[in-house]
Amino acid sequence: MSIHRAKKDASLRDRLSRQQPRNATQETAHLESQKSLRRRPLALSGKNTEGSLTHTYMASLFSGIQEDIGELRNDVTTEIKEVKRDMAELGHWVNTMEQSRNAKEKELNTFRWEQLEH
Fold first, then answer.
1. Which has the minimum average pLDDT: 18-32, 53-67, 82-96?
2. What span, in angstroms and rounded, lies between the C-alpha atoms of 103 and 54?
3. CA torsion sign, 46 to 47 to 53 to 59?
């Protein structure tokens, strides 16, 4: 479970807990949905013991961490590619500026020599 998905699930639980049921049927449905959210890890593990709950929680936590690492790795790779592209563009710009500066210096030196000769 990624951090984004965990936040989304927490947001859903928050919204469900803030809803004001209008009648007894909706209240019962609301309570059942809350129970199902709490029971989900047990249903995934297939067992009803504290050890398996801890194991399931740790496994889902580890899986979420792996997903987050994968997302971060992709983000870093993308950033590195963008930085390399930007560096190449800056290198090209610096070369262009140096060539322009050299041409201006040459032009200025030529002008100075012409002024000295006259």
1. 18-32
2. 72
3. negative
Per-residue pLDDT reduced to its tens digit, 71-106: 999 999 999 999 999 999 999 999 999 999 999 999
- The Cα 25–Cα 19 span in angstroms is 14
Which residues lie closer than 8 Å to 46 by C-beta, 6 or more apart?
A: 52
Return the pLDDT at 42. Answer: 47
Secondary structure (DSSP) of 43-106: HHHS--SHHHHHHHHHHHHHHHHHHHHHHHHHHHHHHHHHHHHHHHHHHHHHHHHHHHHHHHHH
Neighbours of 11 (CB within 10 A): 10
Cα(2)–Cα(64) distance, integer angstroms: 5
Torsion over CA of 75, 8, 51 and 69, rounded to 10 degrees? 0
- R_g of the chain computed on alpha carbons: 33
